[in-house]
Structures are given as structure tokens and as C-alpha cells.
Write a structure and sequence with these properties.
It is built from 2 helices and 6 strands. It is of the alpha+beta class and 126 residues long.
């Protein structure tokens, strides 16, 4: 059984998709872009964008009963690989411990709303 995750604490879907879904004990988030769900604003700085994207991921996970500690796989889409170090600096504050999530990081030509970063995760409910 697959159930939809929906929260007002993360930006709403801007297309025909869910913010996330739960399938069994796995939680899949859609890619979260750095839109502030309260204001609709997007900061210019890539570090601020990374932080907001991760806060949005965190909100979707929370709605599903998970935390960032439950994440075992992430995919990071970035507009410019030159931002890799700055993104990692912020990312590292959200994922700590002995076992870090597996990750893919891909530079892409363009992201929704012309943002600099988008992050999706897979987590396991305990």
C-alpha cells in the first residue's frame, strides 16, 4: 500500500506529484527546492537555498513520522558544480554520525523556479 504525504510545512507540489509517499516502511520524498513554505520566497545564496531545501525535506519526513536520522539515500541536484563545497558545508550539518546516507550529486542544466539546488531522500520508518 502506498500513501501520500502532505504538509503545509513544506512547499506544495507545483505539478502532478506528491510531496512524498510512504510505501511499506520506506518514505520517498519528492525533490525539495528551496521555497520558503510560509512566504514563497527563495533566497539567492546557495548555502541558504541548501538549508531551506533540507528544512523542506525534514518537514516532509516529519509528516511521515521520520527524522533525518532515518534517511539512508539522498540525491542532490545542483545547477553549478562549483557550488559543491558550499552545499556540502550545509548538508554536513544535517547528516552526522557513523553511517551517512548514500548519495548521488548531479549537475543539471536547470531546476524548477531556476533555483540552485534540489534534494530528494529515501528514509526507513523504524
Amino acid at each position: 500500500m502506498v500513501t501520500k504525504i502532505a504538509t503545509e510545512k513544506a512547499p506544495g507540489a507545483i505539478g502532478p506529484y506528491s510531496q512524498g509517499v510512504v510505501a511499506g516502511n520506506l518514505v520517498y520524498t519528492s525533490g525539495q527546492i528551496p521555497v520558503n513554505p510560509e512566504t514563497g520566497a527563495v533566497e539567492e545564496c546557495v548555502k541558504a537555498q541548501t538549508k531551506q531545501s533540507l528544512e523542506n525535506v525534514k518537514a516532509v519526513l516529519a509528516e511521515a513520522g521520520c527524522t533525518m536520522e532515518d534517511v539512508f539515500k539522498t540525491t542532490v541536484f545542483i545547477k553549478d558544480m562549483n557550488d559543491f563545497a558550499a552545499i556540502n558545508e550545509v548538508y554536513a550539518t544535517y547528516f552526522t554520525g557513523d553511517v551517512l546516507p548514500a548519495r548521488s550529486c548531479v549537475e543539471v542544466a536547470r531546476l524548477p523556479k531556476d533555483v540552485k539546488v534540489e534534494i530528494e531522500v529515501i528514509a526507513m520508518k523504524k
